[in-house]
Amino acid sequence: MPNPDIQVLIAYHSDYGSTEKLAQAIASGMRSAHNNVSVTLQQASQTTADDLLAADVLVFGTPVHMGGMAWQMKKLIDDAGSLWMENALQGKLGGVFASGSGFGGAGGGVELTMAALHANFLEHGMIVVGLPKNALGYADGGLHWGVYARTGNHEGMPSGISDSQLTSARSYGAYLLEIAGKILRN
Ligand SMILES: Cc1cc2nc3c(=O)[nH]c(=O)nc-3n(C[C@H](O)[C@H](O)[C@H](O)COP(=O)(O)O)c2cc1C
User: Fold this and answer.
1) Is 137 left (phi over 0), alpha (psi -120 to 50) or beta?
2) Cβ 94 vs Cβ 58: under 8 Å
3) pTM of the predicted model as reported, rounded to 2 decimal places
4) Residue range 96-137, pLDDT digits in tens
5) Which of 2, 35, 54, 143 is the most buried (most CB within 10 A)?
6) How confident is the model at residue 2 (pLDDT cuts 50, 70, 90)?
7) One-letter-per-residue 3-state SS of 118-134
8) CATH assignment of 6-184?
């Protein structure tokens, strides 16, 4: 590949694979939207400050754990605190995604989780990109914050990720790259 126009890092945590499926679908949407993009998918626990610095677009994803993000994602965020001191991530684009069982029908803390990821990006002076409501799959897998998949059924048991949730994730990937193309290369 020639030097990519846009470098993306998708850093996520996933214990059982649901959040990882969203990460893969976002990456697939990005690759289909732009033929000269480099997309790296990586577990949050394997991600370093240098990885964050190298990317133009950072996309963070986490399962909801006890109403908030998984500690592995929080650790990455806290470990990147020195970059905040240096304003090193300023002007990069940020997107977020999450999965949660959603037991109770009100999302089980997902909005707080996604807003906390946004807050971190905004602390760094980054540009946060949400998901517009006309994105394909939005009704099942979208929130204005980004991509969300409810992975539990009414009995509180895992029900997996639906096709429309994956569609929403692919749309988000494509949308992030559309915005990146407009903002980063002008
Ligand atoms: C320790 C733990 C705490 C959890 N807490 C919540 C919660 O507060 N709200 C929620 O909606 N789901 C909660 N869940 C369910 C997971 O968020 C959900 O199954 C998610 O899709 C798992 O993603 P993964 O397959 O990527 O690990 C919890 C799961 C675990 C293991």
Assistant:
1) left
2) yes
3) 0.97
4) 999 999 887 767 899 999 999 999 999 999 999 999 999 999
5) 143
6) low
7) HHHHHHCCCEECCCCCC
8) 3.40.50.360
* Ligand 1 mean position, distance from CA 100 (Å): 5
**DSSP string computed for 7-44:** EEEEEE--SSSHHHHHHHHHHHHHHHH-TTEEEEEEEG
Domain ranges for the chain, please list them: 6-184
Closest CA to 33 of 180, 177, 185: 177
CA 80 vs. chain centroid, Å, equals: 17
Q: With beta carbons less than 8 A apart as the criterion, state whether 111 and 142 touch.
A: no
Output the CA 56–ligand 1 centroid distance in Å: 29
Written as six digits, the tokens of 167 are 């569609």
Say what the pLDDT of residue 186 is.
63
Pocket probe for ligand 1: among 12, 21, 65, 111, the residue whose CB has the most ligand atoms within 8 Å is 65
